[in-house]
Design goal:
It contains 24 helices and 19 strands.
Length: 758
């Protein structure tokens, strides 16, 4: 008998339980904390840029070539891509849940390397970026100048040089995407002056390449030497040009006809600018630079956020004057609040269990023994989280809430049995424990196995639902099995040394014992009434069957008519607002609309911080001049109680603002219930053209017809797509015959166009 060992050696049982608790605490401190179990499929993104190319050219020359190679990577579920009119190519490979993301990224990187030689030179020159990352943003940081002392160019340069690398080193940070363009020397060519001097953009490019290069000049005095040298010096050159004045002094041509030199300043305007002017950011109406921070897979979200904020606070001491930061978006507060709420519920459940157990056992010794099974069973469960790959999340903590009332059952059975032998058989506590454990060891094991058998099958439900509730079910099953071990080890050991005979009938009672006596009398009367009622209904079995049938039919009716959802949507205290203006809208118009929307939304009382990015669509994560995204963070939940201040109410207010804007389509959307499963609440699906035709206009027509049909459905509140093929453009048709007749190189025509317009 297992219990016999611990009855004879109670210290051993106590020490084992203490070790279980200590190891469980250590495991608990090392586990990741998340809102939900990690059920998001791992993704690998590939991004490149074909500057100056239209969406169709990007798709044909870059996106398709990369997709062809990446498609078929082991473990891949599907692949999506997006080609924009700004020259951006974005490809996302989504893998099956459980795929090793590191190996998947390596395989994708190798496949991209195979595709790279066949890509346009402009794409290869800028490079392709392959990243593994969580598909949802953890934190968006906005650096800005509160008093307007510094412009966006200065802020972006400071952020890129000093902040990005420092934050990238924070433990738990997986990736940081900056929305600031790098400093660049901008050379604005004057076509008329070039033509007057018989120069072409290609001549300017050749001069830049010739006169601006990095040279390793070598050394003087190095071996071998015919004569012994006392010193060896490195030779430095000024071949690399860095300043605006130096660029202006680049010689484009030695003009023999005019007897002078043609400098770059003679045919162009040179200034220190940025590489890309299409991305502009604002926070609370002021120019800003955004850093989008992604969490590393398996990292603790709250620890990562705390470390990030600590690093920022330390760095703030060395910020240039009039530079500060705000957090227009973060996903950690809702995680922390959810965990705190569940922990609060856990403590309430623990308190109720203590009260109920004490109320019925009516002895502090008998109450303490089963209560000690709770920390051992629950904290010990954390030990198994590590090999199972579980996290501390709302579902595992809810499992603990449910398990609190279950893990004490076995111990209560043991205590009641031992107390019975002490009171009725007049045995000593140790002998009573031996006698009781001989009778109930088998039933205790059977109870634990039956309870575990109820929950374990939930963990084998296939698909994403099974993975979501797997941790919930396994957590309960493990805690129940540990409680059975406690009931066979710690509980009998404590019973043998702590329990005492109950008081004799008629003995003097204190106030607590009088309370328990009255409680027992009333409970016995309630039990007797219940027994009589059951007996009465047994004699009316047909009526009971009719009532059961009615309840069953009603249950089926309610089940069929009740709305269904994967996960309930909650007020997470944040939302996105995206807008889309007509195709080919300029960046200037987009910024004007962005600032107008920010000013109006900022007036909503529930809004705390608002940041905006012109040129970024957060839903498709594409860069276009006619789109933009606003990150709206609401005030804390305790400051906006009531339905009128709920996030959905704020969505309604923003939609009211949007209805007055006729020049753009504006969407106010809440984040998905589970981060990483899409970019917004609701659901997303893809239309795929399976026929051999490449008629994109026909596909667009089908997509718009389908979208119109979907919006007619009463169940759909709003359906939308950002797919658009109607982008206005100018088409230049080069007459190759005339070019050859005029002795003009056709390639130079396209090069000139690319240089002047790209």
């Amino acid at each position: 008998m297992i219990a016999e060992t611990f009855i004879r050696r109670p210290v051993t049982a106590i020490v084992i339980s203490i070790v279980i608790v200590l190891v469980g605490i250590i495991a608990m401190l090392t586990l990741p904390v998340a809102q939900y179990p990690d059920i998001t499929p791992p993704t690998v993104s590939i991004s490149g840029n074909f500057t100056g190319a239209d969406a169709e050219t990007v798709e044909q020359t870059t996106t398709t070539a990369i997709e062809t190679q990446v498609n078929g990577s082991p473990g891949m579920s599907y692949i999506t891509s997006n080609s924009t009119g700004s020259g951006q190519s974005s490809i996302t490979a989504t893998f099956n849940v459980g795929t090793d993301i590191n190996m998947a990224t390596l395989d994708v990187q190798n496949r991209v390397s195979v595709a790279q030689p066949g890509l346009p030179d402009a794409v290869k020159r800028l490079g392709l970026v392959v990243r593994k990352r969580n598909p949802s943003i953890m934190v968006a940081l906005a650096f800005y100048s509160p008093n307007g002392t510094h412009d966006a160019k200065f802020i972006g340069n400071f952020t890129n040089i000093y902040m990005k690398d420092a934050l990238q080193r924070v433990p738990g940070v997986g990736d940081i995407v900056t929305r600031a363009a790098d400093f660049s020397m901008r050379i604005w060519l004057n076509p008329e002056k070039l033509a007057a001097l018989s120069l072409t953009p290609a001549d300017v490019t050749a001069s830049l390449t010739e006169q601006n290069l990095q040279v390793a000049a070598g050394t003087v005095g190095g071996n071998p030497q015919p004569m012994q040298q006392s010193f060896e010096y490195s030779v430095l050159t000024n071949s690399r040009i860095n300043t605006k004045d130096q660029f202006e002094e680049i010689i484009v041509r030695n003009s023999t006809s005019t007897g002078g030199l043609v400098y770059l300043r003679d045919v162009a305007r040179v200034e220190l600018g940025v590489f890309d002017y299409n991305s502009n950011a604002f926070v609370n109406g002021k120019p800003a630079t955004f850093l989008l921070v992604y969490q590393a897979p398996g990292a603790n979200a709250m620890d990562t956020y705390d470390a990030l904020m600590k690093t920022l606070e330390e760095a703030r001491k060395t910020f240039p004057s009039d530079i500060d930061f705000l957090v227009p978006l973060e996903t950690v507060s809702v995680v922390k609040t959810s965990i705190d709420e569940v922990v609060h519920t856990l403590l309430e459940a623990l308190f109720l269990v203590v009260i109920v157990v004490f109320l019925f056992l009516q002895n502090w010794r008998a109450t303490l023994i089963p209560l000690l099974a709770i920390p051992v069973s629950l904290i010990g469960t954390f030990i198994f989280f590590i090999p199972f790959g579980f996290t501390i999340n709302t579902l595992t903590l809810f499992a603990f809430v449910l398990a609190i009332g279950i893990v004490v059952d076995d111990a209560i059975v043991v205590v009641e049995a031992v107390q019975h032998y002490i009171d009725h058989n007049k045995l000593s506590p140790k002998e009573a424990t031996r006698a009781a454990m001989k009778d109930i060891s088998g039933p205790v094991i059977a109870i634990a196995l039956i309870l575990a058998a109820v929950f374990v099958p939930v963990g084998f439900i296939p698909g994403i639902v099974g993975r979501l509730y797997q941790q919930f079910a396994i957590t309960i099953a493990v805690s129940v099995l540990i409680s059975a071990f406690v009931a066979l080890s710690l509980t009998p050991a404590l019973c043998s040394i702590m329990l005492r005979p109950s008081k004799e009938e008629g003995a003097r009672k204190n106030w607590l014992e009088k309370f328990f006596s009255g409680f027992n009398n009333r409970f016995n009367r309630l039990t007797l009434s219940y027994s009589k009622g059951v007996g009465s209904w047994i004699r009316r079995t047909p009526y009971v069957l009719v009532m059961m049938a009615v309840l069953f039919v009603g249950l089926v009716f309610l089940f069929k008519n009740k709305p269904t959802a994967f996960i309930p949507t909650e007020d997470e205290g944040r939302m996105f607002v995206t807008y889309e203006m007509p195709e080919a809208t300029s960046t200037t118009r987009s910024i004007a609309l962005l600032q107008d929307l920010m000013g109006k939304i900022q007036q909503i009382p529930e809004v705390n911080v608002i940041g905006g990015l012109a040129g970024l669509n957060i839903i498709s994560f594409s860069n276009k001049t006619n789109v933009g995204t606003l990150f709206v963070t609401l005030k804390p939940w305790d400051k906006r109680k009531g339905k009128e201040h709920h996030v959905q109410a704020v969505v309604g207010k923003i939609q009211g603002i949007a209805s007055s804007v006729k020049e753009a389509r504006i969407l106010a959307i809440t984040p998905p219930a589970i981060p990483g499963l899409g970019q917004s609440a609701g659901f997303t699906f893809e239309l795929q053209q399976t026929t051999s035709t490449d008629n994109i206009a026909q596909f667009d027509a089908v997509a718009q017809k389908f979208l119109a049909a979907v919006n007619q459905r009463p169940e759909i509140g709003m359906a939308y797509t950002f797919f658009n093929t109607r982008t206005p453009s100018y088409k230049i048709d080069v007459d190759r015959e005339k070019a050859k007749q005029l002795n003009v190189n056709v390639a130079s025509v396209y090069t000139t166009l690319s240089t002047l317009l790209g």
